[in-house]
Write the structure tokens for this entry.
Amino acid sequence: MSDIFDTSYEDAEIEISDNKLVKGEDLNLTAKDPTMTNIIVGIGWDLNTFDTDTLDLDVSCFLLNKDGKTRFDEDFVFYNNMQDRDSAVVHNGDNRTGAGDSDDETISIGLNGISFDIVKVMFVLSIYKGEEKDQSISSLKNAYIRVLNASNSHELLRYEIKEDAKSIKDTAMFVASLNREGPKWHFEALGEEGKGGLAQIATDYDMIIHKG
């Protein structure tokens, strides 16, 4: 894997001014920082301490073409497939507990390395075996997603998803998307329910999911 992704940002001082997004808002990342080529997408959360069975949260992303579909198995980046075919989107590891004060899971993205036929990167937060355990996204506390410029650790935006998560009774959530508009990249805060969970979302994106 390329060493262009520096994950030492975790100890960097967070700078936030007008960078907070709410559900439905869109930010032109390219206009925000025209020099940016590599980003870190970090997601953090706390769990409801009253739950007897701790939620195992996972962050995944789907690389989608103009038809809103994946092209290959590698277009589904998650804990069992840590990077896409071009190594432009790299998952930095699974956190099963949500412990700690910084980002619980991160994904490194080299914007210039994403194939030109990919127009959207969709970020999904889901609960592993959530349906079996009768768990839902609504149990999350203090959940957020943020984007940093990987070259200087500057936080470009943050979307606090904790309020939007409260209403989601399913096991998955469309958190946000990274959208290509010609040479520009936009970030959109979604906060939408992922009906049927991660497996159904993957199936809808043309992934073949083997259950059992």
Observations:
- The helical segments are 29-32, 162-165, 197-204.
- The chain has one domain: 20-204.
